Amino acid sequence: MNDFLIDLPSATRAKLSAALEGGYLSLTPSVTALRAALGRVEEAEALVAALQELHRLGMSPRGAAAALRMLDRVAARQPKPDLVLSGLQIPGTFARDTRQVYDELLGGAEASVWLSSFVYYNGPKVFETLAQRMEQRPNLRVNLLLNIQRGWGDTTKSEQLVRSFAHTFWHKAWPGQRRPQVYYDPRALEQDATDKAVLHAKAVVIDDAALFITSANLTEAASERNIEMGVLLRDRSMALTVVRYFQRMIDAGHLRLLPGA
């Protein structure tokens, strides 16, 4: 099937299949005939070329109509991604709210959560929904991937920075009784700039089925004021790919477990 036909808006594809099925349109139409059958059509010349390609392949108008209807049924079964935004509310922009998506995903998890963020701020608030869900679902497995930052010019030993981060996280940031597994990238603690790297990914995977990739960190500013953008995908294959990526980094020792978990 020609890519142009695959990318047609579903409403246009439905009108096209009806016109072909009803005999109102052939597979070798002029642009004028196409517009007479379908009304206003974007890139009419490209659509004519796509139909002519089906004709050269030996397809009949009724066969083409059946193929287009099948394409619509397959497309209808695919979950659509959601655009997720933070910041300014612009009229005419249809998207979901970052905070609402975070709360919906974390508050609805049943089996597993993978949550990665470069920074967090006001831990008791940003982790509240997740901590409550862990209490509600005793079998819920939660893995957090967080970056431990070394300030510019800070020569403190890496082990001390890790202990300090862990103490702050467990005693001041994490609000729940049950504790998640928390991992960090030790390369973020390197003093040599050529070896230094950070855990910068912002992503959530819920129950190996939903994947939220966003520019927003776990902060109130990122959820409410900053201009942030992300995509929510309900795609099990993609979600599992991210989970396996994280798990393999842990298994290989690239990510280390934070003390106290």
TrEMBL record:
Give the matching Gene3D superfamilies. Endonuclease Chain A
Bilayer-crossing residues are none
One GO MF term attached to the UniProt entry: catalytic activity
Q: Provide the PLD phosphodiesterase domain boundaries.
A: 195-222
Q: Which domain of life is it from?
A: Bacteria
Classification via Pfam families: PLDc_2
Instruction: Set out the biological process GO terms recorded for this chain's protein.
Output: phosphorus metabolic process
What name appears for this protein in its UniProt entry? Phospholipase D active site motif domain protein
